[in-house]
Amino acid sequence: MPEEPTPGRLGMEARSVKFPDGSRGIILVKAGTPQDEADLIAAQVWAELPEPGGPDA
What we know:
Elements: E1 6-7, E2 12-18, E3 24-30, H1 35-48
Antiparallel strand pairs: 1-2, 2-3
């Protein structure tokens, strides 16, 4: 996977991010979004996920 942002369609970029548990993933962000902001977005999404095995899972 390239380390540089990957240009996408409609002004979006695919970014490699690190989640709070140390795992890595790919998210789409607005083109030009700084890497630290992409990591923050990933952490916010992670925090909103339901607990595994919980009532919302």
